[in-house]
Each structure stands twice: as structure tokens, then as C-alpha cells.
Amino acid sequence: MIVSDATLDEVRTRGFAMVPDFIPADRLHAAQEALWTIFPRPADYFADPEAHPKFGKSQFAGIRLFPYDNPALDCLPVLPGLVDAAERFLGGEDIDLYKVELWAKYAGAIDYDQPHHRDYGNHTLVVPRLDRPQLTTIMLLSDVSEADGATRAVPLEHTHDIPLSPRNLTGDALREHEVALTGTAGTLILYQTHVFHRGANFEAADASRFIIMTDFKRRGQRWTGKMAWPDQAIRPGWSEALAAMTVRERDLFGFPPPGDDYWTPETLAGVQARYPAMDVTPYAQGDL
């Protein structure tokens, strides 16, 4: 699905927007089935929560980093419509995909309530420059109602007068303005890192929520990022995930593009040996 210009304008002016039915139905179904290779099914979790104590260690204990050693999940961060939206929002193809996190939450595992905050604290060394935004995204892999721990976001119109720092607010002053980011599985949520939002608790004892978060930034902003992809490159599934990508999709992770002076006969042979399933032919260009 192509995200409309009107939706991207809403992200710029309101701070966030939602796109229902963004993930194609077949890919959504495959991704949902793949979740259970990483997380317990809700029925299994709630049958014996004490058998899964790790989810109670912190609010973020349910986060798993890319890759997932499963094509059904590994393809989601580079869905063509998502990349296209990031390019158009950020102003061109020269962008980085700088974070991918899969996140599971189970009611009662821990207190998920949060104060209103801005995400830029661990996305940049400085503060956002509002005319050069980052794009953060959430794709819902389960239905999320207000009772299912939906993220609460505050439209920018209510926070224009609040300085960029500090990024955390105490008290309930913004709660009357917040919007619950709800939707059916497959919904895409886009928002900016200077938008005030918060996590919320579940209202049903047997509720759960599953999402994947993928974030993009303009290339060249050394002070901005979150994950160092080389640090993930020895994890199971990385070779397979990278081999399945197109040249453009690898570029989003910082892989050297065709024509870069990195490529020599020696490096070409080495990369082919490291990623046996990858077609390295497109990189065998230029003066090698």
C-alpha cells in the first residue's frame, strides 16, 4: 500500500497518523504465525504466567531486535510502501533504516503505564531539528483497542509551547488531549520523535499486544541513530535476511552500494563467502 500525501502531511502537522490495512493480508498472516517462534501464544502465556518470568523484568523485556531468523518477520521493515513513505517524508532516497524492534506485551506481566515523553532521548545525541525530522513507525501485528495497551499520543497543536527539553513530563496535564493509537492488525502508525506520547496499561486481564517498530532518518546525521547494525550481523538469521533483500533494501541498513570504492575483487569474494545465498552480481560493477 502507498501512504498518501495527505497522511504524510498529517504526520507533519499533527505529529502522527494511522493507515489501516497497510500490511498485505498474506504477509500479515505469515508474520502473525511467525510471532510464536519468538513469543508464547497468549493462551499459553496466560495459562501459566509464572512460566514466562522474563516479561516481568521491565516494560521493555518483550522487545526483540532484528533479525528474527524468519522471512515473514524480516520482510516487514523493508515493505515497499513503508520505504516509499519514509523517502517521501524525509525528502529523498538518501535515508537510513536505523532501528527495528519487535515488541510483545502481556497484561499483568508488569506495570506498562508511562509518563508523557518524547522518544528522541535515545534516538539522537542532541534535540530534534523540527524541519529535519526522523520518522518512527509502528505496525500492529494484533488488534489493538484502547483496552489493549494502545499508545497514547498528544497532537502537536497542544504542545507547541513546550520546549524541546526536558523530554519527559510529570503530571496529567496532557491527558485530556491524548489520542489512543488503536487499530486492527495490519495498521501502520507513523509519528515524529518530538511527539509527546506514553505507554498504557491493559484493561483486560488476558489481553496482549504485538507490534513491530521501524524507524528512518536522513543519512549523514552522525548524531542520530539507535542500533549499530554490525553489532547484529553475527546473530542467527542475519545472513539469510540480508541475502533475501534487494540492493536498495540493503542500502537502507548501510550496506555498500554498487559502484562504491569499497568493492574490489577481494572484498567481493569475501562478501560472497560471508553471504553465500546473496547475489553479489550487482556489486561487481565499476573499476574492480
TrEMBL record:
Q: Which UniProt keywords apply?
A: Dioxygenase, Oxidoreductase
Q: Which domain of life is it from?
A: Bacteria
Pfam families in the record: PhyH (PF05721)
Q: Which InterPro entries match?
A: Phytyl_CoA_dOase-like
Q: Which GO terms describe its molecular function?
A: 2-oxoglutarate-dependent dioxygenase activity
State the name under which the record lists this protein: Phytanoyl-CoA dioxygenase family protein
